[in-house]
Amino acid sequence: MKTLIVGQGEVRKLLGMGECLELMVKALQTVATGDALQPLRSAMWLPSKRGVLGLMPSYLANLAVMGVKAISVFPANQGTPYDSHQGVVLLYEVEHGRLVAVADATEITAIRTAAVSGVATDRLACPDAGDLAILGSGVQARSHLQAMLMVRTIRRVRVWSRNSEHCRVFAERESTRHHLSVESMDSAQEAVAGAEIICTLTAAKEPVLLGSWVSPGAHINAVGSCTPSARELDGNAVARAELFVDRRESILNESGDFLLAREEGAVGEDHIQAELGDVLVGRHKGRSSPSQITLFKSLGLAVEDLACAHHIYHGALKANAGTAVELGGGRYETD
Questions:
Q1: What is the overall mean pLDDT for the chain?
Q2: Can you give the pTM of this predicted structure?
Q3: DSSP-assigned letters across all residues of 143-155
Q4: What is the pLDDT of residue 79?
Q5: Domain, as residue range, for 317
Q6: Of the listed ranges 62-71, 79-88, 210-219, 244-253, the one predicted with least confidence
Q7: pLDDT band, very low/low/confident/very high, at 80 (cuts 50, 70, 90)
């Protein structure tokens, strides 16, 4: 049985940010209409807590595919030759259960995570929002800047990172890449002062964004933390905002930003306004007023990876890209 292997560089060519924005809208709408299966992810931590192996299964009825993302997360890799997220997405068709493709998950994660934030920003941020603050200077900072530029007319970009040298290098590189001025800031508070869009993209375990710093009318994409014990936002930041999520079940089990705020008594479960898919299908109106702060808490869904892998697979077939290999699955008669 032939299985197509699609590497990191090929994924980058086959999955543009504009295409991915459209894919993420459709995938989240499919979740909202009940035509997807999206179990909670499972995770195996190393005894040292240095890294974790995550398994994320899913099914999309509209594409007739199922799959699983297997990915390691090693936050300390920042500054090394290795990405913090490394793994694969396994794509299966559902008639015979054939494994049709294996696609690099590092690049899919980088692109689709930012694309989902782009969709959230498009639907929840004020229409004229153009002052962008980015907290973090890694892979997601790069891809989020690209996504934000696609959904809003960005007038100003400020970036802050816990590593000042990484921050400076990011600002210089992205200024050249996008032909705009990206300002490197000395503090997170300075970076977000007056910002209309804020993206938190760090590996922080303690808050890097305080609610008292956030201006009325701002939209926040909280992306970096994805475990119950880690948070990027303090309880006040969560409490001040209308909270939208990618998946209610996920935030109630996995999001330290929400769970720790709830533990402190800052919010309850009724603080969750809706899933982003509910906004996309018209079940919820989204932002309630121009002065209201909106918060999208992103944990990442396997259906997002699955939709990307399906798109990449068919793009690779058309472009004669990828490498076909023989893997088990064919039935052979024995004498």
A1: 95
A2: 0.94
A3: HHHHHHHHHS---
A4: 74
A5: 2-108+302-326
A6: 79-88
A7: confident
Q: With 80 as the cut, is the pLDDT of residue 137 above it?
A: yes
Q: Do residue 259 and residue 224 come from a single domain?
A: yes
Q: What is the separation of C-alpha 292 from the centre of its chain, rounded to a whole number of angstroms? A: 23
DSSP, res 283: S
DSSP conformation letters of 154-165: --EEEEE-SSHH
Instruction: Please tell me the distance from the alpha carbon of residue 102 to that of residue 132, in angstroms, as a whole number.
Output: 35
What is the pLDDT, as a whole number, of residue 83?
A: 85
CA angle 147, 151, 156 (to 5 degrees): 80
| Angle formed by the axes of helices 302-319 and 105-124, nearest 10° | 120
| Cα 248–Cα 254–Cα 257 angle in degrees, nearest 5 | 90
Q: Where are the beta strands (DSSP E) in 38-98?
A: 42-45, 52-60, 65-73, 85-93
| Beta pairing partners, 157 | 132, 182
Under 8 Å between Cβ of 64 and 93: yes
Do 293 and 206 fall within a single domain?
A: yes
Does residue 210 surpass a pLDDT of 90? Answer: yes
Question: What local confidence, expressed as pLDDT, does residue 335 receive?
Answer: 47
Same domain as 194, residue 149: yes
State the pLDDT at residue 131.
98
Q: Which amino acid is at 273?
A: Q
Which residues pair with residue 243 across a beta bridge? Answer: 272, 295
CATH number of the domain to which 314 belongs: 3.30.1780.10
Q: Are strands 131-135 and 99-104 parallel, antiparallel or unpaired?
A: unpaired
Buried b vs exposed e over 144-165: b needs ≥16 C-beta within 10 Å? Answer: bbbbbbbbbebeebbbbbeeee
Domain match, 159 and 193 both? yes
The structure tokens 């710093």 sit at 213
